[in-house]
Amino acid sequence: MTQANRRATPLRLFIFVGVCALLMLLDLSGRLLAIKGLILRPVLPVQSGLTSLAGGARSVVNLVQDLGTLRQRNQDLQELADRLTVENVRLRDVEIEDENLRRLLDFRQSNPNFAMRGGQIVGRVLGRDPNFLKYLVIDLGSDQGIAPGMPVMSDVGLVGRIVEVSASSAKVLLITDPGSAVNALVQGSRVLGVLQGVDGGNPQIKYLTQDAVISPGDIVLTSGLGGSLPKGLVIGQILKVRHRDYEMFQEAEVRPTVNFGRLELVLVITDFTAADAGSTSP
Questions:
Q1: DSSP 3-state assignment of 118?
Q2: What are the pLDDT digits (tens) for 191-231?
Q3: What span, in angstroms and rounded, lies between the C-alpha atoms of 14 and 35?
Q4: CA triple 206-188-134, angle to 5 deg
Q5: Residue 236 backbone phi and psi in degrees, to 5
Q6: How many Å apart are CA 196 and CA 184, to the nearest integer?
């Protein structure tokens, strides 16, 4: 240690002791707080800024976490909504099917005059012919006792007749097909005729006698003549009548009571054997 340093050491110690004594006196007199305020005043804005910055950083982190939570919750809610939509569609489909079956059951109970073996068979429509809705294919066949010539019904009227049968399915010739001919009866006048399908339009009832009084709205039923179908099955209503004096017969357009475009379930009368079942061809 140099001589200058040795001389400065007592001075530093004296100054340190003096400063400590001064600080003690200021603290005892209460003036130290004012000095602290003066010293900390420039530092407080920086400290406040750092505190705000830390708070902002925490807010950003919390926001990111909240967004992630909300995104996951939204995804969970969307998945739940999708499941509920699918379930609602399924329940609606079951409801519609139950209603259709209920109407078919009501039809059976309201027609006790038709002898049936173990009740009428309900068949679901599997396919349609693309040309003028001529055929329906149902999921009932020879394994279920289905045979050509059996009448096919819905709850509102005649659909057609079975014309082809396999082990598990059958083809139904609709009354709207040009190859279909049904012996018919106009309910009001009791006049007889033959209902024949028309390509792209409503079927026509032909060979109505000229003196018969026929009006739009009259109900058309199966007559039962010829043994091809039971008597009294509802076919439809008269829409238009064509009456010409120079022609031997009248003709009328018939609107079927069955909506073939929306048909899903049918009934097959299984205890009726048509007289011309063997000669029926599609």
A1: coil
A2: 999 999 988 789 999 999 998 899 999 999 999 998 889 98
A3: 22
A4: 40
A5: 175, -155
A6: 10
Contact at 8 Å (CB) between 229 and 151?
yes
**C-beta of residue 186 within 8 angstroms of C-beta of residue 214:** yes
- Each residue's pLDDT tens digit, 32-78: 555 555 555 565 565 565 566 556 667 766 777 777 788 878 777 77
DSSP state of 160: E
Tokens of residue 272, six digits: 């009726």
* 184, two tokens: 């018919």
Q: Is 257 helix (H, G, I), strand (E, B) or coil?
A: coil
> Position 19: which residue type?
V
Q: Nearest-CA neighbor of 152 among 226, 256, 279?
A: 256
Please tell me the distance from the alpha carbon of residue 26 to that of residue 79, in angstroms, as a whole number: 71
Say which amino acid occupies 123. Answer: G
Token couple for 67: 């967004």
Give CA torsion, residues 72, 78, 80, 85, to 10 deg. Answer: -170
**DSSP state string for 74-107:** HHHHHHHHHHHHHHHHHHHHHHHHHHHHHHHHHH
168, 139 contact by CB (below 8 A) = yes
pLDDT at 281 over 60: no
| CA separation for the pair 150, 170 (Å, rounded) | 11
In sequence order, the 6+-apart residues with CB closer than 8 A to the CB of 232 are 113, 221, 222, 224
> Is residue 254 within 8 Å of residue 237, measured between CB atoms?
yes
Q: Please state, in angstroms and rounded to a whole number, the distance separating the CA atoms of residues 24 and 26.
A: 5
